[in-house]
């Protein structure tokens, strides 16, 4: 059962996938109805999930489920991963590269490889106050309140 993204309850569970490149407007327009269809049909053991999906900042695919209505099962999560893999193939984009970190600098999403992070911190290009798109955020309320968040308030805090 589809629910508009902006009507999700704060406790709704999230899965955030970061694209390895910015999605074009044309790609986004093609993907959005696919997301709505997936969220509408997404189920767990035959029971429809109260789900939603959205594209944020031209780069992040967010799937959501109101777990108080129906919890996502391992099988339903596997279905969502398969759906994201289909999008990868169709649009020539990767959503599963966890070695790239996204920051908001000067109003733009900037991506830094994990192997570059220490040097960027040492050079002062990234500090604890640099806004970081933490894909480990797991509920809608946190996404609304603190996303992106200062890097020092995420798992990256060990670098500062």
Which segments are poorly predicted (pLDDT under 50) over 5 or more consecutive residues? none
Physical arrangement of strands within the biggest beta sheet: 7-6-8-9
Shape: globular
Strand content: 15-25%
How does the helix and strand content classify structurally? alpha+beta
Mean pLDDT: 94
Distance between the termini: 43 Å
Backbone CA Rg = 16 Å
How many strands, what sense, and barrel or not for the largest sheet? Answer: 4 strands, antiparallel
Oligomer: single chain
Fraction of residues in helix: 25-40%
**Number of distinct helices:** 4
How many domains, in number, for the residues? 2
Order of helices and strands: EHEEEEHEEHEHE
Tell how many strands the DSSP assignment holds.
9
Q: Describe it for me?
A:
The structure is a single chain. The protein has two domains: 5-91; 100-134 and 149-159, no CATH class. It is built from four helices and nine strands. It has helices spanning 25-41, 74-91, 114-122, 140-145; strands at residues 13-18, 43-44, 47-48, 51-56, 60-65, 100-105, 108-113, 131-132, 149-150. The strands form three sheets. A four-stranded antiparallel sheet has the order 7-6-8-9. The protein is globular. This is ABC transporter ATPase.
What's the arrangement of secondary structure elements?
Elements: E1 13-18, H1 25-41, E2 43-44, E3 47-48, E4 51-56, E5 60-65, H2 74-91, E6 100-105, E7 108-113, H3 114-122, E8 131-132, H4 140-145, E9 149-150
Antiparallel strand pairs: 1-5, 2-3, 4-5, 6-7, 6-8, 8-9
